[in-house]
What does this fold into?
Amino acid sequence: MKKDEGEAIRQYAKSFEAYHHWRTKENPKGWFYNDYLEVPAVNELLGDIRGKKVLDFGCGTGIYIKILIKKGAIVKGFDISNDMLSIARKENPQLDLRQGSGYDIPFREKFDIVLASLVVHYLSDWNKMFQEIARVLRKGGYFVFSTGNPVVGTVKKRDQGANYFHDKKVSVGWKDNDGGEMRMYYYHKTYEEIIRTIIKNGFEIVDYRDCFPIRRAKKNFPKEYERYSKEPLFSAWKIKKK
Ligand SMILES: C[S@@+](CC[C@H](N)C(=O)[O-])C[C@H]1O[C@@H](n2cnc3c(N)ncnc32)[C@H](O)[C@@H]1O
It folds into this structure.
């Protein structure tokens, strides 16, 4: 097992209940960062997926699974964390949801689309990851993924010595299952690394979003809207297997 895989398992063992809580229950208006920012952009990139075979890579507690099913897709999923999966399986007992890593995807069949929402930054080796995604995608299939915006992420931490060009492993503050503070570690990639790795592994970039907040956020989350309509927190990519 790679070091980053063990880290992801440990980090989500400490925080899976907290994660599911804040994504689904903390606020009746939803969770700004996902429901008003990242999910709408990814939804646009997914487009019409009725009848398409979609693999949810890093499906977590299964929040996207519900969205994908609503959009009419045929969904399977996997995640490295059995803790995250325990919630996804409980809420979707009819689905094929497997434990496994993006470095060794636990499926042998081909999919039309692989989706990875806010997952890829937990993997350090993107060559290995893209090779695996290419293996499970049909020719002409799409990989849709979202991650942090690497420039804005660094600028925000400039006073802590962050370096866009040299940083590899970074962290953010997170909540654990007991309501305590923890650090969540992930891997920083520059735009150059992201784009060159995509091209090198036989993919073509077909669409991209900076994740601008949806209009409803202005009323429901005015403070966050004000900030994130001026700086892009996330990036969302649609790439095609050639
Ligand atoms: C921020 S959560 C996102 C979960 C889900 N995609 C969502 O949108 O709610 C990141 C997920 O990536 C998973 N993950 C991290 N490293 C992974 C790896 N190497 N292979 C598969 N899943 C991984 C974690 O276990 C966690 O469930």
Remarks:
- The chain has a mean pLDDT of 96.
- The first helix runs from residue 3 to 24.
